[in-house]
Design a protein that fits this description.
Structural class: alpha/beta
Helix content: 25-40%
Number of domains: 1
CATH topology: Rossmann fold
Largest sheet: 6 strands, mixed
CATH superfamily: P-loop containing nucleotide triphosphate hydrolases
Length: about 220
């Protein structure tokens, strides 16, 4: 599904290069549940953002569904991301002015899906996530765990092939965190490929494969 080859990412400041990622090779297969672990500053989020086409490497090759992302324009990448990738962030990234319903509906608007079809898709996901009673509430009326549930519902509504989760339980208590991880596990069992970044050994145990990043490199 996804292949990274010789990925380097650095920032230049006064002719000094600070490397965030060095020579990263990574394959993610369809149906994988991959966990990326490592200390703070190891480059985990940067790697996830490159996979999600939110950030670009300085050099290296990236293939997604056999397409060469490293050769694409920003517009082509946006299209690819829009239809195939769902992102879940630690801080939820919900739109405060929109209700639960409207937040979940947003990706479908980007995909220009017709109103009647959107209605059915949102209703189905609200039902699946047990959120029908909360559909008219705003994010600030929800607990952290509920906000993250909305963020995941929004990420999966368009049935992406890949979900990228950056510390998805970082702001939640252990009970809420467990609920979110069970949700990911179920999605993975249903066929969604998941890559998560986490510090948590308990969260990592939900995945099928773990890689460790150290100083921007994948540790053997």
């Amino acid at each position: 599904m996804l292949q990274l080859k010789n990925i380097f990412k650095f920032y230049t400041n006064k002719a000094m290069k600070t490397y965030v990622l060095r020579d990263v090779d990574l394959d993610v297969n369809e149906g994988d549940f991959l966990t990326i672990m490592g200390p703070s500053g190891a480059g985990k989020s940067t790697l996830l953002h490159i996979m999600g086409m939110i950030d670009n490497p300085n050099s290296g090759e990236y293939f997604f569904l056999d397409q060469p992302v490293h050769k694409m324009s920003e517009k082509q990448k946006t299209e690819l991301h829009k239809f195939h990738i769902g992102f879940v962030f630690q801080s939820y990234h919900l739109i405060d002015e929109l209700t639960v319903y409207e937040n979940i509906e947003t990706p479908l608007l980007y995909q220009k899906i017709k109103g009647s079809e959107r209605k059915g898709m949102v209703a189905e996901i609200l039902d699946r996530f047990n959120m029908v009673a909360k559909k008219d509430l705003f994010p600030n009326q929800l607990s952290g765990g509920q906000q993250q549930q909305v963020a995941i519902a929004r990420a999966v509504i368009a049935q992406p092939k890949l979900i990228l989760a950056d510390e998805p339980t970082g702001n939640l208590n252990s009970e809420q965190g467990k609920e979110i991880m069970e949700m990911f596990k179920k999605l993975n069992e249903e066929g969604t490929t998941i890559v998560q970044v986490t510090h948590s050994e308990a969260n990592a145990a939900y995945g099928k494969k773990i890689i460790n990043l150290l100083d921007g490199r994948i540790a053997e």
